[in-house]
Amino acid sequence: MKYLLVILVFVFSAAAKGAAAISILFVNPSVEGEPFWTKVQKIMAVAAGQHNVKLDVIYGEGNRYIQLAELKKYLKYRATPDYVVLLNYPAGAEQSMSLLEEFGVKFITLEQTIAAAEKAAIGEPQQIYKNWLGEIYHDNFKAGKLLAKALISKAHQQALTPHVVAINGHYGSESDSRSAGLMDYLTQYNLKLNQIVYANWSKMEAMTKTEKLIQRYPNINVIWTASDLMALGAFTAIKERKQPFLIGGFDWLRDNILLIKQKKLTASVGGHYLMGGWALTTLVDHHNGHLFWQNNTKIEIDLAVITQDNINQYDYLIDITDWSFLDFKQLSLLETNQSSYRFDVAQLRKDTLQNIN
User: Fold this and answer.
1) I need a labelling partner for 155 at 20 to 30 A (CA). Which of 103, 188, 221, 253 fits?
2) CA-to-CA distance for 213 and 245, rounded, in angstroms?
């Protein structure tokens, strides 16, 4: 009887250990409450609940020095997480990744934000930094081209000759790749880009720069922007003017989708706020023995564009607050026995959804 009790205690303690939540730290690169990254975080929390994951969050506050300091503080004074999900800041990638290596924490990066010499210095996942399992990202060049196509197509629909300006984020891999996609599209169709300016992802700065661009180029009618916040800034600058303007950005922010429905903005490229939930799902699979991150180092996703022509498929996103209708277990390779991940922003179209709260 005594031996039976010992065995039962061992079995139950092992079961309890197996049921213990995986711990994942999400390094939100922005400030608390910023629209896009707040949505990434909320959706990630839904995935965490479905996968029995203990999710912690710290904030980089839009600054590589602050992000590194917050990450150091967390790793030094808190229980070491099983995994970290983060976005690398340009000029800060080596320090953050070296820190995670020092603490022996495996991690996934979101987006491809590092270029040139710094990219060569960090290498590819699992090369220089062995704990860097992989990266989940979209092709910013392709996405920039997608937005350009949506804006120019709308100009042609309205019998307008496109006169184009662009508002980029900052001098860096992500925003420059997006604008390179724009320029490639314009070159392909023999269209001219009047000027590209940088507004540092700021709505206010984009508004000011738009006002100056209109003074410099009075005939502009297409304003391509590298983010929805900057698209809102451009819209604020032109909304009292009677001439037509076609404006688009990135991120699928609520206000932008609403303005597209009201036919005041033209387009928004996005869907990538799902990537945190996807990253978490792959880490749960990895933790439970799936070999995906041993055999792969990257997951590339395609973004989608919301326009005035397909807004009826996405307008429910304007008022969505509860993301629990997303089923992340159905995306798990272990749960479904699929051979590869089927991460697709098209799952947010109304005609692909089963339940919308």
Assistant:
1) 253
2) 13
Contact partners, residue 286, CB within 8 Å, separation at least 6: 106, 133, 292, 293
Q: Residue 59 forms beta bridges with which residues?
A: 28
Amino acid at 147: L
According to DSSP, residue 240 is labeled: T
Is residue 262 helix, strand or coil? Answer: coil
E-strand ranges in the chain read 22-28, 53-59, 83-86, 106-110, 132-138, 164-168, 193-198, 222-225, 246-250, 267-270, 298-301, 304-307
CA 328 to chain centroid, in Å, comes to 17
What is the C-alpha separation between 302 and 293, in angstroms, rounded? 20
Helix (H, G, I), strand (E, B) or coil at 243: coil
CA 312 to chain centre: 23
DSSP 143-191: HHHHHHHHHHHHHHHTTPPP-EEEEE--SSHHHHHHHHHHHHHHHHTT-
Tracing tokens 């699979």 back to the chain, one arrives at: 285
Whole-number Å distance between alpha carbons of 118 and 116: 6
DSSP string of 186-226? HHHTT--EEEEEE-TT-HHHHHHHHHHHHHH-TT--EEEES
> Could you tell me which residues come within 8 angstroms of residue 128 by beta carbon, excluding any fewer than 6 positions away?
121, 122
Joined together, the tokens standing for residue 224 give: 């391509």
Integer angstrom CA distances of residue 148 from 129, 163, 251, 345:
36, 12, 15, 19
The one-digit pLDDT tens for each residue of the chain (357 residues) are: 444 444 444 444 444 344 568 999 999 999 999 889 999 999 999 999 999 999 999 999 989 999 999 999 999 999 999 999 999 988 899 999 999 999 999 999 999 888 888 999 999 999 999 999 999 999 999 999 999 999 999 999 999 999 999 999 987 678 889 999 999 999 999 999 999 999 999 999 999 999 999 999 999 999 999 999 999 999 999 999 989 999 999 999 999 999 999 999 999 999 999 999 999 999 999 999 999 999 999 999 999 999 999 999 999 999 998 999 999 999 999 999 888 999 999 999 999 875 454
The rounded distance, in Å, linking the Cα atoms of 201 and 170 is 7
Question: What is the sign, positive or negative, of the torsion defined by CA atoms of 334, 335, 337, 343?
Answer: negative
